[in-house]
Structure formats: C-alpha cells, structure tokens
C-alpha cells in the first residue's frame, strides 16, 4: 500500500491532495459549529455512550496504552458514582503507523457516533485528524501527541492530556545553560513532531544566549546507513552537545551507530527527550546490550507524583487485560491514557448533569460530494460538542498521573520532568525540572509550597556520570576534525612592528602579540591547527575596523594582533580577555619652563597665603590677651604692645620669638600653633625645593579638552580607532585630523607644530606612545590624563568557544608571569617620567591644611573662653577702693542707666588692664578687711548690755 513507517507521534506522509480536500474539509469554514442539529435530543441519559481510541497497536506507546485504556473503561463502568445508568463503550482503531490509514480509521470512528476520541499518539496524525474533529465537533483527547503547535487556536477541539514538548525544550535549555554550554546540535526526525519540537528548543536556547549550531534531520524510518552518514558529518563539527528528539520505536539506532563511530566516549554529551525513558521503562527485564549503548546519556522523563492512586495502578499492571497482543511494558504514557478515559467519563457525567444530551445531525457541507463514491454523508456532527468541550477543559481532578487540570492554553498545569542519568544497568535520577523553579534536587510538589524561584543560584543537580565514565563536566566542544586550519588574520603593519609584523620564517608573522597568542594556545588541552594570513598591503597600516568586520563576515576565523576592544566591535565579534592595557593619551611638544623671580610664592595658593597670614595675626592677638595681665613682655604703651603682637606672631614662623609665655592657657595655644607652623614650614620647603630643583616642562596643550577647543590639527595613527572616536564621540571636525603612518611622521609633525604644517598634538594608545617617547629620547611628553580605558584582545567570530578557552589561558599567562616575560622581550623601553609643568593643581591649597587650622582655632576659642570666665569671676568679687561707686550714686542720683553701663564697661576694661598680681593683692586685702569687720561686729554685740 505504500504506507510509510512512522513513530508514535507523527510522520511525514503523502497522499493525494484532492482526497485531503474532500475528506478533511480544511478550507471549509466552521460556521456549522453554531447551528442546531436536526435530530431531537434525548430526554434522559442514554444507556450507553461511545468513545473512540486511536493509536498504533504495535508500538512502544501503543502496547502500554491499550491495557491502560481498557482498565480505565472497566473501572469507570464498575464505579456507580460515575455515569450512573450509562455504560461507557470504547471503540479501538489501529492507525498502523500511517498518516493516511490513521485518517481513514478516524473517519470510520466518526461513523460510530462517538462523543470523544482518545488519541492519537502521533503528532502528525493529530494535525490531520484535528481538522476532522473540528468539523464534526468531537473532542480529541491525545495522551501522546506532544507537538507544541497542536496548542494553536487552529485546533480548538484538540485537548492534550500529556505534557507539552514546549516545556520539555525549555527544560533542556535550562540544562544546557546550567553546564555552561553555548551551542548544541539537534538530531531529530523530520516530521511535525521533530521539526516543531526543535523549533521551540531554538527559541528557548536563544533566550539563554545559546543556540542550535546545526540541525541534523533524518526521515522517519531511515536506514542505519543514512544515520551513519548523518552522524559522520555531525562528528566533524565543533559542538559535542547533542540533543536527540526522535521516535521511541527507532530511536535506539542513533546510539547504535554513534557507538560504532566512537561517539559515546569522553568529551561527548548526549541529551535525549522523553522518548528514551519510554523505551527503557517498557523493557522488562532490562536489556544489557541496549543499556551498554546508552552509558552516560542524560534523558528527560515525564514527572508524575508517587500518589496512592499511581501506586495502586502500577501494582495491578501485570494483571491487566489486553496484554496478550505483545509485551506491554509500562511507561508514563499508560498513566496519561488511563487518565484520558477518566477525563472523558467525568466530563460526560457533568455534561449530563447539566442537561446535556447525545444527539447528532447531518452536516450540510457533506451532503454535496459532487458524485464522489466516498460515503461522507454518514458522518454526523455532535450537537453538544462545544458544550462538552467546555466541560472537558474545565475539569479538575487527581488521576494516576497527578493533577488533571488545564490552563488557558489547554496545557496540563504544573509541567515537570525528571532528569535521568543512564549508568550501569539502569537509570539514576539526578534532579527535577519544573516551570515553577527550574532545576532542583527536590521534587516539584514540595517546591509548590514555596515562592517561585528560577534564579541561576537556585539551580541544582546531583553529579552526572558522562560518557567515558567521568564526572567532570565536558567542555561541550572540540576543534573540528574536518582538516581545516583556523584562518587567522594578522595586521600587516608598517609601524610599531614590535607588536606584530611580517616574518620570512614560519609561521610567517612575529611580534609581541603573536608570542602571546602562541603561548596561550600552548596551554589549551587540544591542538589548534592554524594558518596566519596577513591583512593589509604592507604600505600603510590596515584599517582595524575593516579587519574586525572581515572576521564577523566569516572571511577569517579570528584576528590576532594589536586589536583594541571597543564597544562597537564587541557587537559583531567576541574578544578574549585583554592581554594588554590600553587607552588614549595626548602627546605634545614641550619646552623647559624657566624659573620666575616669584617662584617662592608658588608652593601655596593665594587662598592659602591669606588664611595663613590671618592666623599668624589671630594667634598673636590671642597670646597677647592671655599674657597681658601677668607677663611684663606683653605690657607697655599701646604702640609697643601692637609691635609686640606683630613681632611675636611672625617670629613663631622661625621659632625665634623672644617673649616668654607664663600663663598655662597661653602656653597651650602656643604649643598647638607651633605644631601647625612646623607642618606648614615643612610642606612649603618641600614644595619650593621641587619647584626650584626639578626641571619643569610646559606645553600649550594641557589635555584633551584644551586640544579639542584649540581648533588646531590633531595627529592620529593610520588605521587607529582614534579617528572614529574623535569624530563620533568628541565631535572633532574631520578636517582637523591628520593620519600619520609611522614614528618618523610623528616626530616631524610634532616638531613643526600647527603653524608650519605639523600638528598641535597626537592622540594615540598608551603602548604606542610609550615606544614613541622612548625612541625619541623623551623629547615629547603626554599631557593631561588618559581619557579612555580599553585593552587589546584577540577577536573571534560570535559564540566561538575558542574565545572563552583563550581567555582562561591568558589569565593563566598573567598569573604565572609569562605574560610579563613576553612583554620584557619585545617592549623594553626607557621610562619618560619627567614632569610637565606644575599648574594650579600641584600647588598646596587650603583643603590640605584646614584640619590644622580648625584645631588651632578651636584651641584659641577655648582658651579665650576660659580666660574671660576667670576675669568676670574676679570682677564680681572686686570692689573699688574709696567707695567710688557709692559716691557716684550719691552725687549723681539722676544719671541715666546708659551712663552707668558705660562707666561699668570702662571700669571692666580698666580692671582687665591691671596686672594679675595687683588684682590678687587687692582681693586678698579686701578679704582680710571683711574678716576684721565681721570680728568687730561680733565683739560689739557681745559687750552691749541686755
């Protein structure tokens, strides 16, 4: 019959187009779905109701599904709480692994007036049959069709009672990301099931910044010779991570061929979708030959909780009926098939309770068949199909596979998978995946009680034993064994050839960059065949941006040389870890700065000079106040006292003051001030020494800002990225930029200057500038600060694994000192460390000393406060001799309060001006007189008669 052999979920089957149009009515609108049927509805529940079962009997999934479906029908009919008074009948049809025959069987099933169909297992057949059930309004409950595209709105009557491959592909993407791989090769069967699943995998990997580097597809039922040819080609590619998404009935042939090609050894990664556990679970007992083919393979299996219902079902599995047709090994699809029948039964019960009936009507679109001999008039539309569909999608119960409930996309809620590792004679579970929390070592139902967490730090798996019996995570790629060498572009420089240049000896290039690259390659654990290709004509430096673009366009595999890592370049290629620090500097001609007669003023800023002078006077005045009452050196006529203040203040600068301090407060202030003076003197001396003894160089250009605002020509190295940076980032006019080919042109352009056809300054990267300054005996200098930060790296095509491995090797070179040794070999030069000018920034300012001044000021304030408190206490105890105050009050009783206050303030000033010894003598005498008067008063009171 020309029937093609297919897998459990679909195949690419051809049959006449006209037959498809007549049978399926794909292009026919579905307005009939809303029309009322002609048949009358039953007034009560029917005595029996029919459901269909579509699957391939002789298949891994079919052999497990048939006894499960039969057991479910038996259990439903024996349960009085479900479909009371109505018997559930199941009508089986074998799709025979053929899309065409599957369609014919589906049409025959529809003639039996079924209310729902359980199946099919093939995604390809499900696509075709979905058009039939859409027209006839019969819900299709598929327990094994996992193609993600079947969830489209195009198929409203398709209900998936198993897990959607959409989630399985995202689980694989998380697994790939977990181990740090960036590329995978997809090996899949070229039908709806395979193509659509791998398409979702590509989308899932893209969200993780990974990709499918190659799609290796083969036809359903392909012979081993075709698979062998496919795997030989795959083995020549870089990626060693293979995702196998095929059919369970023929999938093991992939691993059989891979074993013969020695592709099941160390360094390979094999990830299989749920088809592989379906086979292994069905084999009783385990087949050692098959297990030997699969050592180290990682596979995903549908996760079903170990509930009481599941355990009970599995315990009676061996005693189920309909197992005589062949070995019926258990797998997870048996659980989904069992729950599919129960879903239909429970939904029918609700449907009948809501007043639904089982009635059918003729489809007017099928009455006119244009004389066709096909008996399409026998197909009838289920009148209550839409209501029954809504009932099905709204069901929520616990079955043997777990919770049976659908989300808005008609997918089962809580999708989850077990991550299995095939080792020895069985499988070991290394973790779980769920869309709730990603990869974990804890069962999903436990995590549902917590908040969702899919962060990278929360992803965990047990150790996996990989092919080759190793627990070390494979790198995931190798250099391809296709006989091709790595095409490495090397700049053909005409200047600064210490970094990279042409060489007449193998390998044809030499220089600092080449030595670093070769040393890094020697640290890799695998050989890298390579061919160096010079880029450029050798008459001028090549444009490095064009070189990077050539790598991005696959003209070269890599670019090795003094290639600067810039933002725009990282968008099109991948760079390694920088092996040389770089950044743009400004180089300008300088001249020696002659000493000025006023150089002694340069160490301090104007503000610093003013504050320092003010503090000299302030401290002198404070010491004078504190010493005036008790120190004869600070007394005398006003003119002499003023001279003393000035002399004492500035003589402390040289520690040559002749006046002695006798008060404790005065000595405290003086000690602190002398410390401040010591610091200021030392700083001034050091700065002035530097100014007068170190050669000072100056330049009209002070940095990039003054260079941009000068409107003078700017020199850059030919081929440097500085040209684009100055124009695009700093808005420098293109007419101002002069490209210079070599160091000689650098020298001449700077010597001439902008007025004689040269340039005002040169903008270039630090490594070039260091060599240039060294080769010109430090005749020129850098001015200003570095205004970009970057580095040199090796450029590779996007997502090249070599970029990652070489980055690690470069870090290792840096850590063990080899990178510095290579630097010393090629780039030894004289350091030009002489200073350019000494501008305002190098002068000592107030901000460097304000802490000292603050301490001194606080000490002066405290000393003055204590001094005046002491004086006021003495003044309150002081009573002027001769009764001056009493006489004043008797003679001038009408004097205003203001005059009295003025007199009191004058008396206070006079009191403060007196010597301390004199005040103490008066207070002592006054105290004695008071005691004497008190004694006389007491004697008088004693001699008075009573």
The coarse silhouette is elongated
Rg, Å, rounded: 49 Å
Our estimate of the beta-strand percent is 15-25%
Helix content: 40-55%
Which spans have pLDDT < 50 for at least 5 consecutive residues?
1-43, 881-901
Structural category:
alpha/beta
Protein name: Glutamate receptor
Pfam families: ANF_receptor (PF01094), Lig_chan (PF00060), Lig_chan-Glu_bd (PF10613)
Main location: membrane
Family: Belongs to the glutamate-gated ion channel (TC 1.A.10.1) family.
Description:
The chain has 946 residues and is an alpha/beta fold. Helices cover 41% and strands 15% of the residues. The protein contains 30 helices and 33 strands. The protein has an 8-stranded mixed sheet with strand order 7-6-8-9-10-15-16-17, sandwiched between helices. A 5-stranded parallel sheet has the order 2-1-3-4-5. Strands 21-18-22-33-23 form a 5-stranded mixed sheet, with helices on one face. Strand 16 and strand 17 form a beta hairpin. The longest helix has 30 residues, at 664-693.
């Amino acid at each position: 019959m020309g029937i093609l052999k297919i897998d459990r979920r679909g195949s690419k089957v051809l049959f006449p187009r006209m037959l498809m149009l007549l049978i399926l009515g794909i292009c026919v609108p579905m307005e009939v779905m809303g029309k009322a049927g002609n048949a009358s509805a039953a007034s009560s529940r029917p005595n029996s109701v029919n459901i269909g079962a579509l699957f391939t009997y002789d298949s891994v999934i079919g052999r497990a599904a048939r006894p499960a479906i039969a057991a479910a029908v038996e259990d439903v009919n024996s349960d009085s709480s479900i479909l009371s008074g109505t018997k559930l009948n199941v009508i089986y049809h074998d799709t025979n692994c053929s899309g065409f025959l599957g369609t014919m069987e589906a049409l025959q099933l529809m003639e039996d007036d079924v209310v729902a169909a359980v199946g099919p297992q093939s995604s390809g057949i499900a696509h075709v049959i979905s058009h039939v059930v859409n027209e006839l309004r019969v819900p299709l409950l598929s327990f094994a069709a996992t193609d993600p595209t079947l969830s489209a709105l195009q198929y409203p009557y398709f209900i998936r009672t198993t897990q959607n491959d959409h989630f399985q592909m995202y689980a694989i993407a998380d697994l790939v990301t977990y181990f740090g791989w960036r590329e995978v090769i997809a090996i899949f069967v070229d039908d709806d099931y395979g193509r659509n699943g791998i398409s979702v995998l590509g989308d899932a990997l893209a969200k993780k910044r990974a990709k499918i580097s190659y799609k290796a597809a083969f036809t359903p039922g392909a012979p081993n010779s075709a698979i062998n040819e496919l795997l030989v080609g795959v083995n020549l590619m870089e990626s060693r991570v293979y995702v196998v998404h095929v059919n369970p009935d023929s999938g093991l042939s992939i691993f059989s061929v891979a074993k013969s090609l020695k592709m099941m050894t160390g360094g390979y990664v094999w990830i299989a979708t749920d088809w592989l556990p379906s086979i292994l679970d069905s084999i009783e007992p385990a087949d050692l030959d098959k297990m030997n083919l699969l050592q180290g393979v990682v596979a995903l299996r549908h996760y079903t909780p170990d509930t009481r219902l599941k355990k009970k079902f599995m315990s009676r599995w061996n005693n189920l009926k309909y197992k005589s047709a062949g070995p019926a090994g258990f797998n997870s699809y048996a659980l989904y098939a069992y729950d599919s029948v129960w879903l239909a039964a429970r939904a029918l019960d609700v449907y009948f309770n809501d007043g639904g009936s089982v009635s059918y009507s003729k489809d007017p679109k099928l009455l006119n068949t244009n004389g066709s001999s096909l008996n399409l008039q026998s197909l009838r539309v289920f009148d209550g199909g839409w209501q029954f569909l809504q009932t099905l999608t709204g069901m929520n119960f616990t079955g043997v596979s777990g919770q049976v409930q659908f989300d808005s996309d008609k997918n089962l809620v809580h999708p989850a998978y077990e991550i299995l590792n095939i080792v020895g004679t069985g499988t070991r579970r290394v973790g779980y995946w769920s869309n709730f929390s990603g990869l974990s070592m804890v069962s999903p139902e436990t995590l549902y009680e917590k908040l969702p967490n899919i962060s990278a730090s929360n992803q965990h798996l047990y150790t996996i034993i990989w092919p080759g019996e190793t627990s070390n995570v494979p790198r995931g790629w190798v250099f391809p064994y296709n006989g091709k060498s790595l095409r490495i572009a090397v700049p053909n420089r005409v200047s600064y050839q210490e970094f990279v240049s042409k060489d007449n000896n193998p390998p044809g290039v030499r220089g600092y960059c080449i030595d670093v690259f070769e040393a890094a390659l020697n640290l890799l654990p695998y050989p890298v065949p390579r061919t160096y290709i010079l880029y450029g004509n050798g008459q001028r430096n090549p444009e490095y941006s064009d070189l990077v673009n050539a790598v991005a366009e696959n003209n070269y595999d890599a670019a090795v040389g003094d290639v600067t890592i810039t933002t725009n370049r990282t968008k099109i290629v991948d760079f390694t870890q920088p092996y040389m620090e770089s950044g743009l500097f400004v180089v300008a001609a300088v001249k020696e700065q002659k000493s000025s007669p006023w150089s002694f003023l340069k160490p301090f800023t104007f503000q610093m000079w003013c504050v320092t002078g003010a503090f000299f006077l302030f401290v002198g005045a404070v010491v004078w106040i504190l010493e005036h009452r008790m120190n004869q050196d600070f007394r005398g006529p006003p003119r002499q006292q003023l001279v003393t203040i000035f002399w004492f203040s500035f003589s402390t600068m040289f520690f040559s003051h002749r006046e002695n301090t006798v008060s404790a407060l005065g000595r405290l202030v003086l000690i602190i001030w002398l410390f401040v003076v010591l610091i200021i003197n030392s700083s001034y001396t050091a700065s002035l020494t530097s100014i007068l003894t170190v050669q000072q160089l100056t330049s009209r250009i002070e940095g990039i800002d003054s260079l941009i605002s000068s409107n003078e020509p700017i020199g850059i190295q030919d081929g440097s990225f500085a040209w684009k940076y100055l124009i695009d980032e700093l808005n420098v006019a293109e007419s101002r930029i002069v490209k210079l080919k070599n160091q000689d042109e650098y020298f001449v352009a700077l010597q001439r200057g902008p007025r004689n056809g040269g340039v005002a300054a040169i903008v270039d990267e630090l490594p070039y500038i260091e060599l240039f300054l060294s080769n010109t005996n430090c005749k020129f200098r850098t001015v200003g600060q570095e205004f970009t930060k970057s580095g040199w790296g090796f450029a590779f095509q996007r997502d090249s694994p070599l970029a990652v491995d070489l980055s690690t090797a470069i870090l290792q070179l840096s850590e063990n000192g080899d990178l510095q040794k290579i630097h010393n070999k090629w780039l030894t030069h004289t350091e030009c460390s002489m200073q350019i000018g000494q501008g305002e920034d190098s002068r000592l300012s107030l901000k460097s000393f304000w802490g000292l001044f603050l301490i001194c000021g606080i000490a002066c304030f405290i000393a003055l406060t204590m001094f005046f408190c002491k004086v006021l206490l003495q003044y309150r105890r002081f009573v002027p001799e001769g009764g001056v105050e009493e006489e004043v009050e008797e003679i001038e009783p009408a004097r205003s309060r203001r005059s009295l206050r003025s007199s009191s303030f004058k008396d206070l000033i006079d009191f403060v001006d007196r010597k301390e010894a004199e005040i103490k003598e008066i207070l002592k005498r006054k105290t004695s007189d008071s005691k004497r008067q008190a004694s006389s008063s007491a004697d008088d009171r004693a001699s008075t008669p009573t």
